[in-house]
Amino acid sequence: MHFASTRLIAADIDSLVAFYETLTGLTAEWLAPVFAQFATERGTLAIGSAETVALFREGSAEPAANRSAILEFRVADVDAEHARLAGKVEVVQAPKLMPWGNKAAQYRDPEGTLVSLFTPMSDEARTRASRSVQSSTLSK
After folding, report:
1. CA 93 to CA 1: how far, in whole Å?
2. Which residues make Cβ contacts (< 8 Å) with residue 127, sequence separation at least 6?
3. 8 Å CB contact between 8 and 45
4. Closest to 113 measured CA to CA, from 94, 132, 89, 95
5. Are strands 70-74 and 90-97 parallel, antiparallel or unpaired?
């Protein structure tokens, strides 16, 4: 089994896609007017409009209701990314060193999801990140 993607359900898909284009520097791939995705080497972030929920089961998901998950993106330099995003997105937490060895900054997307950008700083954090990359490469 391979983890394939995380999908966010959006009340305003255009605004949410624009946020993630700004955050990641990627251009969304629109597979339908109600569905876009950002495919990366390590996984995919998909965004579906609220109307796509009915394709599965009406009411099974709702936009702007997440308060338990944090989307995390590993970046080469969290300080540089934070400077690039200044004034463009809502900042929740400026970069700070976490007890597990990552330096992380947090942002809030337009529908309330918490997003973290982080850079491994300690030797242990860099080793974990390296193992994660090797694991995903071996499973291809």
Report:
1. 34
2. none
3. yes
4. 89
5. unpaired
- Domain residue spans of the chain: 5-138
pLDDT digits (tens, 9 = 90+) for 49-105: 999 999 999 889 999 998 899 999 999 999 999 999 999 999 999 999 999 999 999
Q: Where do runs of H (alpha helix) occur along 1-140?
A: 13-24, 78-85, 123-138
In this structure, what token pair is assigned to residue 51? 């109307």
Q: DSSP of 53-87, one letter per residue?
A: GGGT-TTS--TT---S-EEEEE-S-HHHHHHHHTT
How far apart, in whole angstroms, are the C-alpha atoms of residue 82 and residue 61? 31
Beginning with the edge strand found earlier in the chain, give each strand of the sheet holding 70-74 in spatial order: 70-74, 114-120, 102-108, 90-97
User: Strand pairing partners for 70?
Assistant: 114
Closest CA to 50 of 35, 67, 31: 35
Assigned CATH for 5-138: 3.10.180.10
- Token couple for 32: 């339908």
Amino acid at 85: L
